[in-house]
Design brief:
globular; binds adenosine-5'-triphosphate; binds magnesium ion; 322 residues; alpha/beta
Length: 322
């Protein structure tokens, strides 16, 4: 227990400093060295996918506010609402999109034509709300969208992807394109159990992954840390060496959250002094530091390849976690 605890402290301290223990060793294992004859194309954008085991844990709320926080750090950020057909990021951001991903699927519009401008210069690809047909879109069409997202790389430092709950084939397709995975969980036993199921499936499907855990709807920080540590202990026991789990932050349960959603204005802009907004800002600063480390590696020999453009490895061979 003492050992686990000290390792946990080490992880949180390092991520606070924007560093990732085992990062290089892990990346060595997972980098594709010969994807194409010309070698892998280095990523221009860091792709961060926000996912969860069970639904309603606050993924969209976290993804939207984190994206705005990162945009506020003078990063060029694009948010992709990948909860196709049931999308709501545009509502949380107060945007009425003219076009959405359904127009890309139907080939009526190019990806560049469906980009909407949001707060702090954030760019949004809306996911199409109230479109059950889109939710039923064939997985091959999703593959084609994921591939076309490569076109966003030139104009984005960071691409945040808000996913549907669970680990369906289409969610997995996006996760294989992720450089980093943010999982949103809460303290309820069902959420903890689902997040472990999710992490287990990530380990099975992807071989290895780096996962940033956010504990949402916590009573207070101590409560969030205890929840994280319970999950960390189980992950360390079952998937040591395959899953690197980091504490990325926490957000308290607060009425400011639904109020901000009702107002259609991200929490960090509508109630910037509230505790949940300050927690999101801290999370944003942490992810920003992580991004700067990630970016500095892109010019060195440890640079990771683009996940979207030109990499078409089958899911079981696709590397992740860098
Ligand atoms: N920290 C919080 N405090 C209070 N309410 C919250 C908090 N986080 C999220 N909620 C509420 O939980 C609900 C679900 O949030 P959200 O839509 O972000 O979840 P989700 O994980 O994206 O859901 P889905 O799985 O359906 O996509 C919303 O009504 C939101 O107001
Ligand atoms: Mg959602």
């Amino acid at each position: 227990m003492a050992t686990d605890s000290s390792r946990f402290e080490l992880s949180t301290a390092k991520i606070s400093a924007g560093m990732h223990p085992h990062h290089e060793a892990h990346m060595c294992e997972s980098l594709p060295l010969t994807k194409t004859d010309a070698g892998p194309e280095p990523a221009k954008s860091q792709v961060i996918c926000v996912a969860s085991g069970k639904g309603g844990t606050g993924k969209s709320f976290i993804a939207c506010n984190l994206a705005v926080a990162l945009a506020g750090q003078e990063r060029r950020v694009t948010l992709v609402d990948a909860d196709f057909g049931l999308a709501n990021a545009h509502l949380m951001l107060g945007i009425e999109p003219r076009y959405d991903i359904s127009h890309v699927v139907s080939r009526e519009r190019d990806l560049s034509e469906v980009v909407e401008l949001g707060p702090k210069g954030l760019r949004l690809i809306a996911g199409g709300a109230g479109r059950p047909g889109l939710a039923m879109t064939a997985d091959s069409a999703i593959d084609s969208i994921v591939d076309r997202l490569g076109a966003l790389e030139g104009g984005s430092d960071i691409i945040v992807v808000d996913l549907a709950a669970g680990l369906s084939p289409r969610v997995t397709r996006f996760l294989t394109a992720a450089h980093d995975i943010v999982l949103v969980a809460n303290h309820e036993s069902t959420s903890r159990s689902d997040i472990l199921g999710m992490i287990g499936m990530l380990a099975e499907t992807l071989g290895a992954a780096t996962v940033h855990l956010v504990i949402n709807m916590a009573r207070d920080r101590a409560h969030a840390v205890v929840t994280f540590q319970q999950i960390w202990n189980r992950v360390n026991h079952a998937w040591r060496g395959r899953i690197k789990l980091f504490f990325s932050g926490w957000v308290p349960r607060s009425s400011f959250v639904p109020n901000s959603i009702t107002r259609g204005k991200p929490l960090i802009l509508s109630y910037p002094q509230s505790q949940p907004a300050r927690c999101i800002e801290t999370m944003g600063e942490r992810m920003h530091k992580h991004h700067l480390v990630w970016r500095s590696r892109q010019v060195g020999r440890w640079g990771v390849p683009s996940a979207f453009a030109g990499i078409h490895a089958p899911v079981e061979n696709q590397p992740l976690g860098n």
